[in-house]
Design brief:
Helix content: 40-55%
Order of helices and strands: HHHHHHHEEEHHEEH
Number of strands: 5
Length: 209
């Protein structure tokens, strides 16, 4: 299935919460959730239907997929990989998604949203431990150093995004040098580092059927 390329604000409205898919717009009054927090569609109801069982599990999976910009087949692959790892499967899944290169670029503030981060990674603007990395799904490890290439330090999108990073902040498991445009992965994220309301156990239940 092709990657979704339509208006992303309708995805936030579908899930009934901010997924932060529109960069800085999500922090202003122009955010779709602030203006009209109802499901998209011409004949939508003003009140959301109460979900139970499979419907609840499906919506949780769709929400997490949209947050990280991952397609269904790839997301399923992450789940099976998480299930084979030691520890809690749901938490392992979230950690794997957080370790993606495009997500790390977004968390450091080098991009304003995941879609922009994916594009910047593919265009080869970053290195990991001094080596070129242009694969958005590349998984970083503790103590990895992610840096903006010297020739890319003048890219306006990167500089504008870093200048606004104080609004959303850098997670505690990451360390950023704003002046040098270099970040370091101090450790893998813990469950308490995930600030969005995600119920990963519902995803585990869905795939365990």
């Amino acid at each position: 299935m092709a990657r979704y390329s339509g208006p992303v604000c309708r995805l936030c409205r579908r899930e009934g919460m901010k997924l932060f898919l529109k960069g800085e717009r999500c922090y202003t009054d122009k955010c779709a959730i602030e203006k009209r927090n109802v499901p998209p569609g011409q004949h939508t109801k003003l009140r959301r239907a109460k979900l139970m069982g499979y419907g609840l599990q499906l919506r949780e999976k769709q929400k997490v997929k949209r947050i990280y910009g991952v397609a269904e087949r790839q997301f399923r692959g992450y789940y099976y990989k998480a299930s084979r790892m030691k520890g809690v499967t749901g938490e392992n899944l979230l950690v794997l998604l957080e370790r993606r290169m495009d997500n790390i670029v977004y968390r450091f503030g080098f991009a304003s949203d995941h879609a922009e981060a994916r594009q910047l990674v593919r265009h080869g603007h970053f290195t990991v431990n001094g080596k070129n990395v242009d694969i958005p799904s590349y998984l970083v490890k503790p103590n990895d150093v992610v840096a903006v290439k010297e020739r890319s330090k003048k890219v306006a999108r990167i500089n504008d995004s870093v200048a606004a990073i104080d609004r959303r902040g850098v997670p505690g498991w990451l360390e950023l040098d704003k002046d040098k445009l270099v970040g370091r992965v101090k450790a893998l994220p813990a469950r308490e580092d995930f600030t969005l309301p995600i119920r990963e156990q519902l995803i585990v239940e869905l795939y365990s059927k």
